[in-house]
Design goal:
Layout (H helix, E strand, L loop, with lengths): L1 H6 L3 H8 L3 H10 L3 H5 L6 H8 L3 H13 L3 E4 L2 E4 L1 H6 L9 H5 L5 H12 L14 H4 L3 H25 L17 H6 L1
Helix pairs in contact: 3-9
């Protein structure tokens, strides 16, 4: 039975869905900000990156988290620096640079939207809807709330159980759930 559970583990399917925007954000960082060429000049603090590239801190934090998870940058003593992979292939003037290849996709709607978000800090319409409201305003619409909560519950049904299995929380008597959607994670932990 346990092998059956591993075979039917939806993690790969969740990663496909969760990574939809990741490639476009990487293209944006390369094509619009030449991020890796900039960072190749030496390690930089988060504030220096935001100031020099003229990007807002909240979306920049998302970008940095993505690049760290992709192992394209690393953090050392409050500064960010390139990894060997990005220093070799994502710097404009390197002989084997893939920058032109990435730049060929810069006009994809999501890449342009990410550029605007990084520059202004203003959230986009939910799911890139031009006529739509940003996420916070969308959450005032009950139909949207139901749809969003169902999506998060669908994802959380598997992940929350795995989270609860990984941590021994038996010594705790209470749990504070902040922005936990429907509470699926808190329920699984309880």
């Amino acid at each position: 039975m346990k092998d059956h559970l591993l075979y039917n583990d939806p993690s790969r399917l969740l990663r496909y869905r969760d990574s939809i925007y990741a490639s476009d954000l990487l293209v944006c960082a390369i094509a619009y900000f030449d991020f890796f060429t900039f960072l190749n000049k030496g390690p930089k603090t988060f504030d220096k990156i935001c100031n020099n590239l003229q990007i807002q801190s909240r979306p920049a934090d998302v970008l940095m988290s993505l690049l760290l998870s992709m192992e394209l940058i690393e953090r050392c003593e409050q500064k960010y620096r390139l990894t060997e992979l990005s220093a070799t292939y994502l710097v404009s003037d390197k002989p084997v640079s893939l920058v032109p290849y990435y730049c060929s996709l810069k006009n994809r709607p999501q890449c342009v939207e990410f550029r605007d978000i990084l520059q202004t800090g203003k959230p986009a319409g939910w799911s890139s809807k031009k006529e739509g409201k940003d996420w916070m305003k969308s959450m005032q619409d009950l139909e949207f709330v139901d749809s969003f909560t169902a999506a998060m519950d669908s994802r959380g049904a598997f992940l929350a159980q795995r989270l609860a299995e990984r941590f021994n929380l038996s010594r705790y008597a209470s749990l504070l759930d902040i922005a936990g959607g429907s509470g699926i994670y808190a329920c699984s932990i309880a």
